[in-house]
Design goal:
This protein is an all-alpha fold. It folds into two domains: about 70 residues, Orthogonal Bundle (Tetracycline Repressor, domain 2); about 140 residues, Tetracycline Repressor, domain 2, CATH 1.10.357.10. α2 packs across α3 and α6 packs parallel to α9. The longest helix is centred in the N-terminal third of the chain and has 34 residues. InterPro entries: Homeodomain-like_sf (IPR009057), HTH-type_TetR-like_transc_reg (IPR050109), HTH_TetR (IPR001647). Keywords: DNA-binding. This is TetR family transcriptional regulator.
Amino acid sequence: MSTSRAAQADSRTRRAKGERTRNRILQAVFNVIANEGLRGVTHRAIAREAGVQLSLTTYYFKDIESLIGEAFEQFSEHMRPDIEQLWQRIFTRLDAYNGAQLRKREVRETLAGYLAGEASDYILAQVREKPVGLAVEQIFFTQARLSPELRARVEAHRARLLAPLVDLCSRFNRHDPEIDAELLLDTITSMEYQALGIPVDQVNDEHVQRLMRRHVGWILGLQRF
C-alpha cells in the first residue's frame, strides 16, 4: 500500500472512531436525562456515563446546550424509521382510492376504522415499548422553552411530524387541514404523555381506540365532537 493510501485509510479510521465516540456521548446524554433529568447533564456526568475522558465532551461539543441540542437531534433521527413506515402503510392504503371514492361515506367509514387502528397501535406501542423515550421527549420539549437553540430543533422536529398529517387531512378537508393536523398531533402527544403516569398493565386499549376513532371520524367529516 502506498504512503498516500495508508494515510487515507488511517484518516478514515480516525474519523470512524471519532464518530463512534461522539455517538456514545450523545447516547450518554439521553441516558443521563432519563435517569436524572436535565439537572444531571454535566460534562463530568456525561463523560462517566459514556466511559470517555472528560476532555472529549468539550472537544466534540462546545457547551451543555450544544450537547442537549445534538442529543435531541439524534433522538429525532431515531424516531424516523417507525414513523416513516407507518405513513408508508397509510398512504399506500389511501392511494388505492380516487377523489370520488374518498367522498363516499362508506369509504370514509372504512378508512376511519383503519386510520384509528393504526394510530392506536402506534400510541400503545410507544407507551409499552418506548416509555423512556417518551419521558425524555417530554423533558426536551419542556426545556425548549428556555433554550433558543433547542427550541429551533424542536420546532423543526414538530414540522416534520406535522407534514404527513397535513397531507392526510388535506385529502378530506381542503379549507384548513393544518388546523386538523395540529389538533391530531396534539391529541396523540397528549395521550402518550398521559399514559406515562399509568402502570403499563392498566393502560386501557379500548379507551385509546375510542378516542382516536372519534377524532379521526371528525377529521373525515363523519361526526362532530
